[in-house]
């Protein structure tokens, strides 16, 4: 029963994998054609998730077994709700804000990497690689802070291209799985 049952089950579900692949390819095409809309759409979806998580967290904070400090849980829930509402109301603006915050993070982490490389230069070889990665992080961060909309644009294109490849692989796998179907 084992391998034939598994083979038949996988073979019967080929169409689900095909649908995932088709939707992924369609999203990828949309993202390549209009990356800002794709970035806004992703931010909107993340905002919806943040809102749901914030509401759930707020409800959970008043339960008997919250698992964490109630005050921290409420703070986290309120921040999630605020982010979620802002992302739903103006997703492109939130996407550019996220890109700008990421830029600041890249600058700070780049500086920290350079400082760390200088401090441990006697204990490690090729510390220049850490310094170079820190400099590249600073450059990327400055670029994101100066032009966050461009960061959203480029990020959305990368995600779209990834979705195209993922979708193509899913479609290919679906047709391979279809051959396993008992009715094929």
From TrEMBL:
Membrane: present as a keyword of the record?
Answer: yes
Bilayer-crossing residues are 12-33, 39-62, 74-92, 98-116, 128-150, 156-175
Q: What PANTHER family would the database entry show?
A: PROTEIN HDED
Keywords carried by this UniProt record: Membrane, Transmembrane, Transmembrane helix
Can you say what this protein is called? Answer: HdeD family acid-resistance protein
Q: Which GO terms describe its cellular component?
A: plasma membrane
Query: What Pfam families would the database entry show?
Result: DUF308
**Which source organism?**
Diaphorobacter aerolatus
